[in-house]
Amino acid sequence: MAALTITPVPLAGGVADLAAAGVAAAAGGDTAPCGPGRFLWVQNGDAAPHTVTIVTPGAVSGLAIADATLTVAAGKVGLIPLPRLFANSQGRAAITYNGVTLVKVAVLELGA
Fold first, then answer.
1. FRET partner for 85 with CA separation of 20 to 30 A, picked from 14, 37, 40, 63?
2. Among positive and negative, which fits the CA dihedral 49, 68, 108, 110?
3. What percent of the chain has pLDDT over 70?
4. Runs of H (alpha helix) within 1-98
């Protein structure tokens, strides 16, 4: 798994080129820091849709919380919030992909 780092999105100006901030999704999955204002940006440049899964390590009253999934259509972009709900014991979300061909990802932090 690759440990993704944060790309700050400043309130004044934003990020001009998200594709340049993205890195190739790792075949074995990635991890990302969780917290308020953080999002996983996913760009699917492939001709097929790809599903991103964020593992939810917690439970409520002994019941597992379902993992979050997002299917990004071919040639499209998706955005997934990364709240603390997804944080493992290291404060990071575990992310998997059903395929990584031409998939780029970035962790964005708003107002950083």
1. 14
2. positive
3. 99
4. 18-21
